[in-house]
Amino acid sequence: MPSRSGIEYERKLVREAWEKGFFAIRSAGSGSGTSAYPKPDLLIFRPSGVVDVIQVKTTGRNNLRFGPDAWRDEALTAKRLRALGFKVRTWLSLRIRRAGRSRRAFIRIDGHEEDILVIKYDPKRGRLYYRWEQRGP
């Protein structure tokens, strides 16, 4: 079950998009239960037919690994939208919770849908590092 903090962060991203003049929508219950259809966390429609499909993660951990299952719904949604003629970008929006100030990052998924994302956060420097690893055969 998603944390209350994660839901609030998703809502904050939607508000920020609306304040910038975009159309944004959050999928309630995304990632939960079973569905015949993908339910991405967020969709943000921008000018000229550009759609950002976003998987949102909130954590307090410093070392993370995400695989294709983490953004499967977003990748399927992006594929369908591209087939309909939209220009689509797929993202992971990551927030690492910290007392005082959280660290946020947007990492582009496109081209890495089947790879593993390894993330390390250095709290002393306040820096986030990431790399992509190809999944083994």
Structural account:
The protein is of the alpha+beta class and 137 residues long. The protein has a single domain, classed as 3-Layer(aba) Sandwich (Trna Endonuclease, Chain: A, domain 1), CATH 3.40.1350. It contains two helices and eight strands, in the order αββββαββββ. It has helices at 4-19, 72-83, and strands at 23-26, 42-46, 50-59, 63-66, 87-96, 103-108, 116-122, 127-133. Strands 1-2-3-5-6 form a five-stranded mixed beta sheet, with helices on both faces. It has a three-stranded antiparallel beta sheet with strand order 4-7-8, with no helix packed on it. It is globular. It starts with a helix and ends with a strand.
How many angstroms does the end-to-end distance come to?
A: 31 Å
Helix/strand class: alpha+beta
CATH topology: Trna Endonuclease, Chain: A, domain 1
User: Averaged pLDDT, please?
Assistant: 90
Strand content: 35-45%
Rg of Cα set: 15 Å
Query: CATH first level: which class?
Result: Alpha Beta
What's the CATH architecture? 3-Layer(aba) Sandwich
Biggest β-sheet: count, sense, barrel?
5 strands, mixed
Tertiary shape: globular
Question: How many domains make up the coordinates?
Answer: 1
Count of DSSP H/I helices:
2
Widest sheet: strand ordering: 1-2-3-5-6
Low-confidence stretches: none
**What is the number of beta strands?**
8
Helices and strands, in N-to-C order?
HEEEEHEEEE
